[in-house]
């Protein structure tokens, strides 16, 4: 069985009103901004033009923005698999939908009450008809990503994988995206992933 | 390509509390669709596939202590994994057995029952953490002492199909030797109201693939399979094999399927490719067939694109169980393996008129014939399409 070394090509972090690409701070807004306002600022800063953005729930917006920034708006390999996870599932939107149930249940909220809708949004934006999976874990679990992604490569199903931890809970967002390929970057292992994910110190 | 061995199964659904009861209902074309009786809802006119056991009754069957914090999904899951264990030939699951569970609802049932009680009634607060979908999975793992690889998949209505795919992949790549895969979802007000708001619930029993279909009936179920690496299967009964699997995104809409069924087409193609089969090798298709206008047309178009004029016999079993969301992939995997085991094709209930657009007719009465290879489809919101291929063990 093939056991080639896999590489982390690049990475992106969005948390606490900041955006980092490959460890470098590329955008910062006032601390304490609401998630909605912060996301709008990132959207504007990136000069994005994608009207579907405004219909998305916040979880999908986080996934969409992270992907745009990490990939410079272009995913060339349309077979790039998406391997994503989070802890809070779609809880924020679940709550918002549950509140509408008291009077008139909102279909436009209900469609976002699943965390993998974000993968649908990314797939629609980049016209990816590739393999997708979404996991729920208590906390960021590097080994889960490594196991799943390695199996995809071993089976020769893919040449590129976009991995993502996109969590949103009580206005607290935590986005970590990275791309895995056969070569050209740092080694794809637990230690490197943890280093990239852990809160950035200046 | 031999495929990954299935060496145990367990199920609970609206048509039965175990494999035998589910098999008898399928064989006798007996559906489990009624108005809600256990779920308390004002939408009492909407038919559902409900398991007629209360949480208290389930807890008694499972010998749980009075102060347990199992959600309904966890109760259903434990019930079916118990059956799986019994027919697997093991007294208890061997050390290192993995557990991959799919769910789309997690513990929402407990949150909606007790949310307003939390501040006043401390005894309900044990359910606050049950909202986390991973909690339900952990409870099931805890019941059986599973402390190896445990994870939760949430990809809507293809969740448990993806759990089966992932388990097979992990065994084939040598990461796991033995893994329980499947899923569990219960009825909730949340989903009943949500699907109703999308106007895709039928007020009558659903009519999958019929020209007059008017939506789906929600259901609840749990279904699990034990997958084992080849070196552990000698001398044990192999119920069938997972020989192909494929997943693709439809990349069309948050919840609706594309007109040309591109995601389904790609998922089926990938599964055939993985199994090293061509379309003509498929004896039967357990279709996703929810009974919505959109899914059944999109899926039919995908089938035409794959199989041309020679579409194999197909049916949807949603008319028996309702659409059991995250559990549907595992439930229908088990029905597929029953078909292989007994040489039976189970009918697509309530079908009368072919769809104008495609003219396709599903199987409408039970047929007895040798079945070697079955394709089972599960498509979810978010465009997540999964196809699995099961083969007879040879």
Structure summarized in a few sentences:
Chain A: This is 3-oxoacyl-ACP synthase. Chain A is an alpha+beta fold and 202 residues long. Chain A has 7 helices and 8 strands; from the N terminus they run E-E-E-H-H-E-H-H-H-E-H-E-E-E-H.
Helix/strand order of chain A: EEEHHEHHHEHEEEH
The first-to-last residue Cα distance of chain B is 11 Å
> On the 0-100 scale, what is the average pLDDT of chain A?
94
**CATH level-3 fold name of chain B:** Peroxisomal Thiolase, Chain A, domain 1
Organism (chain A): Christiangramia lutea
Protein name (chain A): 3-oxoacyl-ACP synthase
Organism (chain B): Christiangramia lutea
GO molecular function, one term (chain B): 3-oxoacyl-[acyl-carrier-protein] synthase activity
Note down, in words, how this protein is organized.
- The complex is a heterodimer of chains A (202) and B (394).
- Chain A is built from seven helices and eight strands.
- Chain A is globular, with a radius of gyration of 17 Å.
- In chain A, strands 1, 2, 3, 4, 5, 6, 7 and 8 form an eight-stranded mixed beta sheet that branches.
- Chain A is of the alpha+beta class and 202 residues long.
- Chain B has 394 residues and is of the alpha/beta class.
- In chain B, the strands form three sheets. In chain B, strands 5-4-6-8-1-9-15-14-10-11 form a ten-stranded mixed beta sheet, with helices on both faces. In chain B, strands 2-3-7 form a three-stranded mixed beta sheet. Chain B has a two-stranded antiparallel ribbon with strand order 12-13.
- In chain B, helix 2 runs parallel beside helix 3 and helix 6 packs across helix 11.
- The longest helix of chain B has 17 residues, at 72-88.
- Chain B is globular and about 60 Å long.
- At the A-B interface, helix 3, helix 5, strand 5 and helix 6 of A face strand 5, helix 6, helix 7, strand 9 and helix 8 of B.
- Chain A: It comes from Christiangramia lutea.
């Amino acid at each position: 069985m093939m056991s080639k070394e896999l590489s982390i090509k690049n990475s992106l972090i969005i948390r606490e009103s900041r955006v980092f690409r490959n460890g470098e701070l590329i955008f910062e807004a006032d601390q304490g901004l609401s998630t909605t306002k912060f996301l709008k600022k990132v959207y504007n800063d990136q000069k994005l033009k994608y009207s579907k953005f405004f219909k998305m729930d916040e979880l999908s917006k986080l996934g969409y923005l992270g992907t745009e920034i990490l990939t410079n708006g272009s995913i060339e390999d349309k077979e790039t698999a998406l391997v994503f996870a989070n802890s809070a599932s779609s809880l924020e939107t679940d709550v918002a939908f549950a509140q509408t149930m008291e009077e008139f249940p909102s279909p436009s909220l209900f469609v976002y009450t699943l965390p993998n809708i974000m993968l649908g949004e990314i797939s629609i934006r980049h016209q990816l008809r590739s393999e997708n999976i979404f996991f729920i874990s208590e906390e960021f679990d590097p080994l889960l990503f490594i196991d799943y992604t390695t199996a995809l490569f071993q089976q020769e199903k893919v040449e590129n994988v976009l991995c993502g931890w996109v969590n949103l809970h009580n206005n607290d967002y935590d986005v970590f995206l990275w791309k895995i390929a056969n070569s050209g970057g740092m080694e794809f292992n637990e230690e490197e992933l943890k280093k990239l994910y852990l809160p950035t110190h200046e | 390509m031999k495929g990954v061995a299935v060496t145990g199964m367990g199920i609970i659904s609206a048509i039965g509390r175990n494999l035998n009861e589910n098999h008898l209902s399928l064989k006798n074309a007996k559906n489990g669709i009624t108005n809600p009786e256990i779920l308390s809802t004002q939408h009492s006119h909407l038919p559902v596939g409900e398991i007629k056991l209360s949480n208290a009754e389930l807890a008694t069957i499972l010998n749980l202590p009075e102060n347990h914090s199992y959600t309904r999904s966890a109760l259903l899951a434990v019930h079916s994994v118990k059956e799986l264990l019994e027919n697997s030939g093991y007294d208890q699951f061997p050390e290192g057995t993995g557990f991959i569970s799919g769910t789309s609802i997690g513990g929402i049932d407990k949150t909606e029952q007790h949310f307003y009680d939390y501040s006043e009634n401390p005894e309900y607060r044990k359910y606050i953490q049950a909202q986390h979908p991973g909690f339900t999975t952990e409870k099931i793992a805890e019941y059986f002492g599973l402390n190896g690889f445990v994870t939760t998949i949430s990809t809507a209505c293809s969740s448990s199909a993806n759990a089966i795919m992932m388990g097979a992949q992990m065994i084939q790549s040598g990461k796991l030797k033995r893994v329980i895969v499947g899923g569990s979802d219960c009825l909730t007000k949340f989903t009943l109201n949500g699907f109703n708001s999308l106007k895709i619930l039928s007020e009558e029993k659903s009519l999958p693939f019929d020209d007059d279909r008017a939506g789906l009936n929600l259901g609840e179920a749990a279904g699990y399979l034990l997958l084992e690496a080849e070196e552990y299967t000698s001398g044990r009964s192999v119920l069938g094999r997972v020989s192909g699997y494929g997943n693709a995104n439809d990349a069309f809409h948050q919840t609706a399927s594309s007109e040309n069924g591109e995601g389904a087409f790609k998922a089926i193609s990938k599964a055939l490719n993985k199994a090293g089969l061509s379309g003509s090798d498929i004896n039967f298709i357990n279709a996703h067939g929810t009974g919505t206008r959109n899914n059944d047309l999109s899926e039919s178009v995908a089938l035409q694109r794959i199989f041309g004029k020679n579409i194999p016999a197909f049916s949807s079993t949603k008319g028996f169980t309702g659409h059991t969301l995250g559990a549907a992939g595992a439930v229908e995997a088990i029905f597929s393996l029953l078909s292989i085991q007994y040489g039976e094709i189970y009918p697509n209930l309530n079908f009368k008129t072919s769809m104008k657009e495609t003219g396709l007719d599903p199987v409408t009465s039970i047929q007895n014939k040798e079945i070697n290879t079955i394709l089972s489809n599960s498509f979810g919101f978010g465009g997540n399409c999964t196809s699995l291929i099961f083969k007879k063990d040879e």
